[in-house]
């Protein structure tokens, strides 16, 4: 789905979102409230320019519109793989973006992520996964690393990873598997405007991803490890 069609469905009361070099920004009406909208389109690679533009928009929202909810629209192929960006420290720029999102959260801004097309690697980590809650459309493509790349890095044969992906969502791409792991709160279908209003009205209960992953059977040990660390007990029971 292109971002214009998405915006029309999310904001039937109107929006003022603009696109510049695959960077989306603006505001829109969701129910009775105004929402700040920031994100990317066109499978944008996240280089230093877009990372800074997103960070600047978030800080501007905090400064000029205290408490305004922020919706992050995600369509990215991940961080830009260029020597120039690596030499300039793209990791620091993306970390800066993540810190700005956290600042907004601490200042009372509800932050919602929506993967409407593609979400890969670092571009997803510093956008949708930094939100209070992240959602996705059914046809979205989500993965941190493709199985061929994972095979090269881990030295585990790709055929074996394909076998593991059948039962273990950690190895498998797609919104259903990220839902099982708790990375997504829900997969939206039907009336998107109503889904957005519901998400904005939901209370923020902190980072629930490990709890959701445990309840859904996609991450069976993460919450147990967290609980063990917090209580200073054995990490895993016998």
UniProtKB/TrEMBL annotation:
Instruction: State the signal peptide span.
Output: none
Q: Name one GO biological process term.
A: carbohydrate metabolic process
Return the Pfam families for the record.
MdcE
The protein's superkingdom reads Bacteria
User: What InterPro entries would the database entry show?
Assistant: ClpP/crotonase-like_dom_sf (IPR029045), Malonate_gamma (IPR009648)
Write down what this protein is called.
Biotin-independent malonate decarboxylase subunit gamma
């Amino acid at each position: 789905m292109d971002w214009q069609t998405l915006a029309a469905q999310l904001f039937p009361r109107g929006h003022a979102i603009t696109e510049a070099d695959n960077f989306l920004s603006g505001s829109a009406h969701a129910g009775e409230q105004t929402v700040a909208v920031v994100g990317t389109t066109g499978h944008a690679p996240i280089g230093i320019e877009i990372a800074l533009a997103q960070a600047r928009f978030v800080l501007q929202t905090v400064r000029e519109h205290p408490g305004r909810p922020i919706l992050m629209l995600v369509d990215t192929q991940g961080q830009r793989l260029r020597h120039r960006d690596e030499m300039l420290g793209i990791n620091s720029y993306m970390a800066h973006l993540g810190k700005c999102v956290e600042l907004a959260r601490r200042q009372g801004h509800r932050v919602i992520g929506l993967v409407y097309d593609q979400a890969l690697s670092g571009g997803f980590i510093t956008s949708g996964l930094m939100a209070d809650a992240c959602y996705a459309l059914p046809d979205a493509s989500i993965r941190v690393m493709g199985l061929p790349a994972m095979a090269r890095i881990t030295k585990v044969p790709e055929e074996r990873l394909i076998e593991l992906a059948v039962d273990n969502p950690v190895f498998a791409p797609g919104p259903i598997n990220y839902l099982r792991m708790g990375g997504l709160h829900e997969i939206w279908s039907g009336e998107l405007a109503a889904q957005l209003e519901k998400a904005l009205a939901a209370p923020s209960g902190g980072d629930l991803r490990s709890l959701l992953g445990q309840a859904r059977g996609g991450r069976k040990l993460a919450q147990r490890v967290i609980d063990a660390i917090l209580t200073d007990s054995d990490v895993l029971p016998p």
